[in-house]
Amino acid sequence: MDSLGLDRLVEVQALETLLGALAQGLKGRGWRLVTAESCTGGLVAAACTSIAGSSDWFERGYVTYSNQAKSDALGVPPALIERHGAVSREVAMAMVMGALQRSGAQVGVATTGIAGPGGGSPRKPVGTVWFAWARGHDFVETECRRFPGDRTQVRAAATRHALQRVRALLESGA
């Protein structure tokens, strides 16, 4: 096996370990997870449902790639998108809260960003991703990250980060 194949195997194993811990944390609390995704296009939900038994803890995923979809499916106000841009803290927060309200899940994660190769600006370059994580309606955490690489690498890194922080949220007891 060449080093690229070995690196990929290590990545897959790390993701499986992460998902196993995430599943255990959610199931142990009787909680379900909802995703609201833009730039990751359903990769977070796909990762969750790639393991057997995910129906015990994964509620649903919303892929809201367009601004209209964010408004229609998650209730993100168009004026909020216009004022702050789709790739913003405010929109990520509105996405995760809308997903929680519509799904009945107890934990949610949202991603909105610029995966590239185009669409970036000096203020929001390619690789910029805003995340929001929420537990219930009383705890929301946000973060902006800039991931290096091409479109595939940015989306993969954003997916891993989204899941790692859900796990951290569960472990912190927040």
Count of DSSP strands: 5
Please give the CATH architecture: Alpha-Beta Complex
The arrangement of helices and strands along the chain is HEHEHHHEEEH
Please state the average pLDDT score. 93
Tell me the strand order in the biggest sheet. Answer: 2-1-3-4-5
- Helix count equals 6
Radius of gyration: 16 Å
Largest sheet: 5 strands, mixed
Strand-residue proportion: 15-25%
CATH topology: Maf protein
What is the percent of helical residues? 40-55%
Structure commentary:
The chain is an alpha/beta fold. It has a single domain (3-172), classed as Maf protein, CATH 3.90.950.20. The protein is built from 6 helices and 5 strands. The chain has helices spanning 3-29, 43-48, 67-74, 78-84, 89-103, 151-172; strands at 33-37, 58-63, 107-113, 128-135, 139-146. Strands 2-1-3-4-5 form a 5-stranded mixed beta sheet, with helices on both faces. β1, α2 and β2 form a beta-alpha-beta unit. α1 (3-29) packs parallel to α6 (151-172). The model has no long low-confidence stretch (mean pLDDT 93).
Question: What brief labels describe this structure?
Answer:
174 residues, 6 helices, 49% helix, alpha/beta, five-stranded mixed beta sheet, Maf protein
